[in-house]
Amino acid sequence: MPKVSLIVSAYNIERYIKKCMESLVSQTLKDIEIIVVNDGSTDNTLRGIQQMAEIDPRIKVINQSNKGVMRARKNGFNVAKGEYLLFVDGDDWLAEDAIEVLYKKAKQKDYDIVCYKFYFVDGDEMKKSSTKSINFQMLVGDDFLKKIMTSKINPSLWSKLIKRKFIINNEISFPQSIAKAQDLAFSCSLGMHDPKVCLIDKYLYFYVTSRSTSVTNSISPVLLEVEKATSYIQQQLKYHHIYSENKEEFEFLAFIHNFWVNRDIIYNKKNYLSKTLYKRWRSMKINIKKNTYFKELVKRDPVKVRIISYLLVRNYSLGSLFYKFYNLYTLIIKGRRTV
Fold first, then answer.
1. Per-residue pLDDT tens for 154-173?
2. Residues facing 8 on adjacent strands
């Protein structure tokens, strides 16, 4: 049994796949398997994968019709044999010692999940990820779940080494019917089973943000799918009878992912999604202004508190007006600091 299975999802990334694969085959920990799932690419991605597989027998190739990243991950998971798993996006890459560092840490205290830091890569620029209010230490019980739901730990699957048997033994499913925020839904599902988690203070993953096909870089109807993800999480919390003790965290999660991350589109973009996103958020009937985590989010800037209060009023036009005012205020403050 290999120590770690690396499951790579790849779709139309011929420009990136070689660098990704080279970073995997050159890992200092050699006892690994590399499972690459080509998700119906229409460019030369598959060819690049096959060329690497001819050189390194640890590489297994799965070729499927285009079914989305979560189905690709599930199909990779189904054939994985490793003690631990790491999901990799095929246009990203790893530090050379990443798997060795993570595996050694996981084995120290038999952790179910090991989280780590990463770089955002945009062309030639790199920016370090930030982990808010987290001391890099062990999390137990529902700590991991609460920190995922309150955006204190990144929900992306590629930012975690996960014990394969933890997924199997807890019958955690891959949410394939959700087109957006699947990683958030899956990470919350992991957290609902009280994993033993370690957070390490090392930058081991390079996440490419400048990918042209990324949904996160475009205004698309798939943004409406986030509501499905948050509904799925709410249903899972209720199914496991832990909704009441996590209600405040869930409501903050729903606010962040249905409203806050889309606020530029809702209030500052004149497009057909603006009012739809706003109405969906309002239909949830969450009184976010009383939420502890919301108060933490805005307490650093008294003006921001007042502006955001207006954003949340029922009058869409008034909210839009005040959002534009806040953006103007931010530009003025930044201008003063540069003088």
1. 999 999 999 999 999 999 99
2. 36, 88
Query: What's the sign of the alpha-carbon dihedral 12, 15, 21, 24?
Result: negative
pLDDT digits (tens, 9 = 90+) for 41-88: 999 999 999 999 999 999 999 999 999 999 999 999 999 999 999 999
Using a 10 angstrom Cβ sphere, with 0-12 exposed, 13-18 middle and 19 or more buried, the burial of residue 235 is exposed
The amino acid occupying position 39 is D
In the chain, at which residue ranges do the beta strands (DSSP E only) sit? Answer: 4-10, 32-39, 59-64, 84-89, 93-94, 113-122, 125-128, 138-139, 160-163, 197-208
The amino acid at residue 108 is: Q
CA distance 192 to 148: 11
Q: What residue ranges define each of the domains in the chain, with the CATH number in brackets?
A: 4-215 (3.90.550.10), 219-338 (no CATH)
* pLDDT for 335 beyond 70: no
pLDDT of residue 304: 65
35 neighbors 74 (Cβ within 8 angstroms):
no
Confirm if 205 and 95 have CB atoms less than 8 A apart. yes
Q: List all residues 6 or more positions away from 267 whose beta carbon is below 8 Å from its beta carbon.
A: 274, 278, 311, 319, 320, 323, 324
Q: What is the CA radius of gyration of the chain?
A: 21
d(C-alpha 332, C-alpha 334), whole Å: 5
Evaluate whether 153 touches 144 at the Cβ level (below 8 Å): yes
Cα 81 from Cα 183, distance rounded (Å) = 22
